[in-house]
Write a structure and sequence with these properties.
- This protein has 401 residues and is α/β, with parallel strands linked by helices.
- The protein has 2 domains: 241 residues, Alanine racemase (TIM Barrel, Alpha-Beta Barrel); 121 residues, Lyase, Ornithine Decarboxylase, Chain A, domain 1.
- The protein has 12 helices and 18 strands.
- Strands 1, 11, 12, 13, 14, 15, 16, 17 and 18 form a 9-stranded mixed sheet that branches.
- The radius of gyration is 23 Å and the shape is globular.
- Keywords: Amino-acid biosynthesis, Decarboxylase, Lyase, Lysine biosynthesis, Pyridoxal phosphate.
- GO terms for molecular function: diaminopimelate decarboxylase activity; pyridoxal phosphate binding.
- Its EC number is 4.1.1.20.
- Pathway: Amino-acid biosynthesis; L-lysine biosynthesis via DAP pathway; L-lysine from DL-2,6-diaminopimelate: step 1/1.
Length: 401
């Protein structure tokens, strides 16, 4: 997508707006697939929570992706997108047994991450194959909010509780057809991930009817030019060798599974906003835009840095700006950032806006959530309409005083 393409989308659908490049998603999917081309059975399950628009799910499924879901609602979204139940894995955390049973009734792969539910589900549904999510107690990933493999994490069954897992499996006569881990997001150190994988291989030896091993995801993508990212090719080469050796020793060709979210969609996304006001204070120049953390919360929540371009004036002289939103509290996208000269009315483009951006949007300050556009084969396709006041109040009930 060129700057002119993005500007034309704003002219047609207004701002703020999310735009996703289908070709970038396809390139990332092929890159990950190629990295594991020497494994006979590979399954890439897209993490729906990253970007859950049904059109995006349908597109990724057309590339060959299955779906990784964390709620019954995401399961239903995937089914509505045309994904067969057998290509969907359901990995919730802390949900009720009733929700897990509803997902099982839909025919998707169940992944359980606590002993209590494992025993209850196994007792009631011993014939339903189950995957077990273990916590390897290896901390991978960046921000502590997105690193989920550490000792105090709420995710997964501790690897040290393997005797308890085995006791439950033996007592209920349930079938364990998969084993899974997820250590965290923004993984840079491949060796740490491979170390965690060795722990998963050891755990896998306890089960004789496995069909797949799921290594999670968390691959880091670059957020600016020259930024560090996970070396997928090197990782693929090293894990492929180890996985194929495990399958040989196990006596069966297992499926190697991943659940990438950010890796597939982050770089495909742009978030476009309009500058309402350029405000000079005693020490700062603020570019105040027609959006806020109600639409893109990651900078405020995680301290994430999204590259910001002034696509209305890309060749202008660079100046320092703090880009802030219109929410009525501290609402900062970027502090003291070098950007081509910004004028009121200019359109700014935020990069890496495909993952965990729209899906975390809200109606805070009673603002509407923005529209979404899919850029596919050099054409813009509206895949979500901008909300209206009617959307804001449709579920509210007014009672008589």
């Amino acid at each position: 997508m060129t700057h002119q393409d993005l500007l034309s989308i704003v002219r047609e659908y207004e701002s703020p707006i999310y735009v996703y490049d289908a070709s970038k998603m396809e390139a990332q999917y092929k890159r990950l697939s190629s990295a594991f081309s020497k494994v006979k059975k590979v399954k890439i399950n897209y993490a729906v929570k990253a970007l859950s628009n049904i059109s995006v799910l349908k597109l990724l499924h057309s590339f060959g992706a299955g779906m990784d879901t964390v709620s019954i609602q995401e399961v239903k979204l995937a089914l509505d997108a045309g994904v067969p139940a057998e290509k969907i894995i359901y990995t919730p955390n802390g949900v009720s047994l009733e929700e897990i049973e509803k997902a099982a009734q839909l025919g998707v792969q169940i992944n359980i991450d606590n002993l209590s539910i494992l025993e209850q589900f196994g007792t009631r549904h011993p014939k339903t194959p189950v995957c077990i999510r273990v916590n390897p107690h290896v901390m991978a990933g960046g921000n502590t909010n997105i690193s989920v493999g550490h000792i105090d994490s709420k995710f997964g069954i501790s690897i040290h509780q393997m005797p308890h897992i085995k006791r439950i499996v033996e007592n209920t006569k349930m079938t364990i057809n998969g084993i899974h881990m997820h250590t965290g997001s923004d993984i840079l150190d491949i060796d740490v991930f491979l170390y965690a994988s060795e722990i998963l291989f050891e755990a896998a030896k306890n089960f004789k009817n496995l069909e797949f091993i799921d290594f999670g995801s968390g691959f880091k993508v670059p957020y600016k030019a020259g930024d560090i990212e996970t070396n997928i090719e090197e990782f693929g080469e090293k894990l492929t060798e180890r996985f194929n050796l495990f399958c040989k020793n196990y006596g069966k060709e297992l499926t190697l599974a991943f659940e990438p979210g950010k890796f597939l969609v982050s770089e495909a996304g742009k978030f476009l906003v309009k500058v309402n006001v350029v405000k000079q204070t005693t020490s700062t120049v603020f570019a105040q835009v027609d959006s806020g953390f109600n639409h893109l919360i990651r900078p405020m929540l995680y301290g994430s840095q999204h590259e910001i371009e002034n696509i209305s004036n890309p060749n202008g002289k660079e100046r320092f700006y703090s880009v802030v939103g219109y929410i009525c509290e501290t609402d900062t996208f970027a502090n003291n950032r070098r950007i081509s000269e910004i004028r009121e009315g200019d359109i700014l483009s935020f990069s890496n806006a495909g993952a965990y951006c729209f899906t975390m949007a809200s109606n805070y300050n009673s603002r509407y959530r923005p529209a979404e556009v899919l850029w596919h084969k050099d054409k813009a396709h509206l895949i979500r309409k901008r909300e209206t006041f009617e959307d804001l109040v449709k579920n509210q009930l007014i009672f008589d005083l």
